[in-house]
Amino acid sequence: MNAILPAAIVGSLPKPSWLSEPEKLWSPWKLDGDELREGQLDAQSLAAEEQRRSGIGVISDGEQTRQHFVTTFIEHLSGVDFDRRETVRIRDRYDASVPTVSGAVSRERSVFAEDAKRLRAQTDQPIKWALPGPMTMIDTLYDDHYRSRERLAWEFATILNEEAKELEAAGVDIIQFDEPAFNVFFDELKDWGVAALERATQGLQCETAVHICYGYGIKANTEWKATLGSQWRQYEESFPLLQQSSIDIVSLESHNSRVPVELIELLRGKQVMLGAIDVASDTIETPEEVAATLRRALPYVDAAKLTPSTNCGMAPLSRWVARDKMTALAAGAELLRAELS
């Protein structure tokens, strides 16, 4: 892996068409039973190889064994009834039918450790694994048991910490927690959100990351972003808190967004995963565009602490668009790396 500017994707990659319907977010599986499990692991191997061939430095599973970045983890927990559905407002943006927390939540066994062991055996490069963050988990459920967002978040933080420790034991180098809810619920963020996230990372020796973005390029998200004005300054709420936290890496959206790049200064001293690839567009960035996005951040983060990345996951894109975007990301990082050396 390159010593500086090692490229990484944030989370998901498109799934092969034989596994689920392509270019559709959270589409159902086309296989079931043992065939589904075999197909998921085959897709994970393909995702790792496509990253390696594209020049990505930190390899992830591409979320190939997950239908949804939050609920696939929750499906493996006790205390959540997927047959009892309620309609809730997701991140104050859109309504969705979600499962119900009907009892005490718990985790009987690891959800992703075996998948992580499989990925670890396939590469000697650093590997990164994404988990949903506590606040984003509670925002994807109807709670009929705890009836307290904070209490449920702390319960999930404890469960996530158990899972994260097993992922670390499986050889994961970076554990990333996805918290798009940090861009919406600012009072909760300050009262207990960052503290719950730190509880999820407690005792880990591997690196920890939090990913905060403006979401996939779906209609509800693009409509919300259209209301945010000429500058998106939501990160001003979370960055100072995270700069003081025990979290090692902060992942943020940048390219083709209206986030003022100078907000990165609020993270001074932390490692930064900077989104230099727009996942809401099929347009393939040029390496020069990627390098320019990264270069603009250098006054606010040392190059040794900068990881070029995508803005968010790429699950809704075609495999070929995602592949070309990864190649552009790695090539742009190489351009800037050569310039700095």
From TrEMBL:
It is an enzyme of class 2 (transferase). It comes from Candidatus Nesterenkonia stercoripullorum. Pfam families: Meth_synt_2 (PF01717). CDD domains: CIMS_C_terminal_like. GO terms for biological process: methylation. GO terms for molecular function: 5-methyltetrahydropteroyltriglutamate-homocysteine S-methyltransferase activity; methionine synthase activity; zinc ion binding. Its EC number is 2.1.1.13. PANTHER family: 5-METHYLTETRAHYDROPTEROYLTRIGLUTAMATE--HOMOCYSTEINE METHYLTRANSFERASE. The keyword Methyltransferase applies. This is Methionine synthase. Keywords: Metal-binding, Methyltransferase, Transferase, Zinc. Residues 5-329 form the Cobalamin-independent methionine synthase MetE C-terminal/archaeal domain. Gene3D superfamilies: 3.20.20.210.
